[in-house]
Write a structure and sequence with these properties.
Layout (H helix, E strand, L loop, with lengths): L4 E5 L4 E6 L10 H15 L6 E6 L10 H8 L3 H19 L5 E5 L2 E3 L1 H8 L2 E5 L3 E3 L13 H8 L1 H10 L2 E3 H7 L4 E3 L4 H13 L3 H13 L7 H15 L2 H11 L13
Parallel strand pairs: 2-3, 3-4, 4-6, 5-7, 6-9
Antiparallel strand pairs: 1-2, 7-8
Helix pairs in contact: 1-3, 3-4, 4-5, 5-6
Amino acid sequence: MSDKLLCEVDSEGVATVTLNRPEIHNAFDDELIHELATTFDTLAQNPAVRVLVLASNGKSFSAGADLNWMKRMATYSEEENRRDAAALAAMLYKLDTFPAPTIARVQGAAFGGAVGLVSCCDMAVASERASFCLSEVKIGLLPATISPYVINAIGTRHARRYFVTAERFPAERAEQMGLVSEVCAEGDLDLHVQKLVNAIADNGPKAVAMAKQLAMSMSNRVINDELQGQTSALIAAVRVSPEGQEGLSAFLEKRAPKWMNGGEG
């Protein structure tokens, strides 16, 4: 891994992946995209990881595509551009489907593809000075690769506006649209991220991972006999699982479950 990307996993299972190109506002290129994809793969295979925090150093969260990368892309053939875009699409998918909960820590501007990174995270905390822009049409391009994730986050109606206007919008507007979960003072950003981390850590690790998948798999499903059967079978299996039994026992015995600090066992 180059110094463009930092990664650490603490003793509590919190993995922090940090974009580290503050001198160019954490713009990303094909090398950084590859490093992100590899890092997400590695962390996804680590059972100790309970939460992933996506952050960045410096004034901006990310300015989107690196200028030098864009210059190279301008000379690519259509097939070369297809392969280049496919690498970005694969990286975004790895983040979107990461098995543990993901939190975006957004301290400043997030433009273009960076909005896609935020959209792929399960939740996002932004400082009051953060701002967002789907800027692609300004230079005659499209937010194509990130579009499925952005639309999932903000909805079709908002996407139909911001995809075509490329307006810059503040954190408060991002929160109203669902792109951001919380907005806070810049000095309180780490505190708010930590509160979310703590809330997740209090819960059953396997249940958390399954609950994330449940939310994604049940989206826009037709409620019919088949679906009712699937959800009934799922909760029945979880109730008799070791973690489910421990959680129920702890609740009934009025004690902390084993997965919590201070829990018995």
